[in-house]
Amino acid sequence: MSHDDFIKHIKSSVEGSLSEREDLFKAFTERCSYITINQDAGDDSFVELRKRMDGFIEGDGAQNRHFYMALPPGIYVKVSEQLRRNCYSEKGDSQIIIEKPFGHDLESSVELHKKLEPNWKESEIFRIDHYLGKEMVKNILTLRFGNPMFGALWDCNHIDSVQISMTEAIGTEGRGGYFDDVGIIRDVMQNHLMQLMALTTMERPGSFEAEDLRQEKARVLRLVPPLDIQQTLVGQFTKSSDGKNPGYKDEDDVSDDSRCATFCTTVAYVKNARWENVPFILKSGKALSESKTEIRIQLKDTTDAMLRDTNHNQLIIRVQPDEAVRLKMNAKLPGLELQTVTTELDLTYARTVEDPDIPEAYESLLLDAFKGDYSESVSEQELEASWKIFTPLLHELEGNKEIKPKEYAYGMNITSSLYPRLGEHSKLTAYVLAGSNGPDGLDDFVASFQNQ
Among the options 130, 192, 395, 425, which is catalytic? Predict the structure, then answer.
């Protein structure tokens, strides 16, 4: 790619919003430069990069340098060493920005940190989990701590269960070779869903400053025991019933005997007084009937002494699409008799906020990185606590060849057949997946942990 091609690529991504800002865009692109780096050629390419950056130094010579390493994890360490040796800012701040996966399990994550540590301090490493940049995720703390009515109910005395789910209507889309080494648990659950759970369960921080926020998230994640395989369901999608969408094993780089899970549901608990015995049902999968991410908080049943036929109150935080907060509640049905009906208070951004200016997640996160705000960067302590929760489960699923994911059709809702039971010690009703979204029987699985 040439420098001109690079500028054209930038323009194509913002063209729709340029209109009256052509002068601003021109000034911006004059500060852009494109250079190709060969990380296998030793330091030479990185010396050339330093010279290019030095050419932009102005005034007193101070220059902050942020290196966004959108690279395969296997070369993180090597590139970070070369950047530190050749491109570190002599006057100003330097920072590396890295994305998941941060390791493959607890051991590899700790090893990765040890290899980065000699060259980069923790305060110079910004770990991106793009879910932390989503507007509704950033709204969770305001919702919790800015509204006393929710704070009063936010415990095991009032909450029956919590479901945290992220589902996608697409499959692996030609990325089967990569996904086969990762699986749905590493791709989504160990990071995105754990961050949503931490924000939902953490105690009130001393402030919204980065250190206080990250300490509270790490503290609550340390209280989550390793996940139990007896309370875990895994599945793998096959081709769609009409044959138009391929199955997971139809991908070119996926073997016919792959046991990689493209769907998983499991149950986590927080061992403290606030969340005693409250199940957190985590669900994620690909090639399901719809794409959505939400937190669904179900409150305990009301007494039947006065009112009958009432439903659970539910607080639903829709992260995507169509960002919203909805509260399901019981009300009297209009008429002469005392009958109840479920109603809904609905705060959907698109309907309640005029022309909502919702930034892209990466827009928000990269701006925070440039400003040195680490409140939405994943800390080493959070990462370690999260891997401790998932690593034993991952090792058992991958080490026991008798465990095979249940097949489910691409995009289908299967509700007719059941899995064999997991065993006498399992609390599950059946080893099945998703009546409403995934392999058959997930509804029974979820119900077995609710209204206990």
Answer: 192
